[in-house]
Amino acid sequence: MKFGKVDHPELIDFTIPQDHPDTPVVLTKYPQDGETNVFVGCAKWNRQDLKNFYPRGTKDELTYYSSQFNSIELNATFYRIFPPDTYEKWYDKTPEGFKFFPKMTNEVSHLRRLNEQVYPVVDRYLEVTSLLQEKLGTIFLQMHNNFGPKNWDRVVRFVEYWPKEFPLAMEFRHTDWFTDEKVSQELYHLLEENNIANVLVDTAGRRDLMHMRLTNNEAFIRYVGANHESDYPRLEDWVKRLVNWKRMGLKNIHFFVHQNLELESPLLSAHLIERLNPELGTDLTIPKSTLSPQKDLFK
Fold first, then answer.
1. Which domain of life is it from (predicted)?
2. Burial call 129-142: b when 16+ CB within 10 Å, e when fewer
3. Would you say residue 2 lies in a domain?
């Protein structure tokens, strides 16, 4: 994942900003009782990317991956809409309780940019994606860097069209969505009114995306490590923030770990889960790896 990559991550201030003032307000609108649902995963299960994760002799990558993680940020669906039997196979290969968080096809977000021609594509995408049944988590839509507020009407129409039975998260990357307070407030209000999660992106070169504004009872976090020793302290800070949000009433944590070079994403995920379990009272499996944390990661 090259987005937000910098040559010298040691020069970046990775401090997580304070919560947006409206984040605690949003969380107080939801019931304070009940369990917190925590899903942590990588962006892909490809053996070539996740080297040193799969034991020798592993025959099916997804089957093994889903024995170690309870979720996957499914980036493959960004590049194509797969045939129905592919989704059925994914469903059959994964255990009960596993969830997929698929990315909306780039035909909607990048090629057609939410114009009036996207709606048949959305229908086709949802028709096959729904075959994941109860294992379907939140679908997320990531807009292009140059998709700015001038396209506001397209965003409104898309949100109004989206079937509410499918949980949705949206990620905006154009700077003007966040630097213009009037624009950002209108966007947050639209997402909040339609129960759409506002994706939080933690990456080195785009700290402006760390707006810390939740728009519903879901923290959808896309964390991009820098293949640098700072990756671990950054995760520690996220644990603290998530614990605080849980105290405020947060019930859904969806945290996906990337790296500019994906080699050790499972290690970072394991570190995060190991810290989250005692703090949140969860019992997530801690993924195994043939590498030992930090010792081999930055040698």
1. Bacteria
2. bebbeebbbbbbbb
3. no
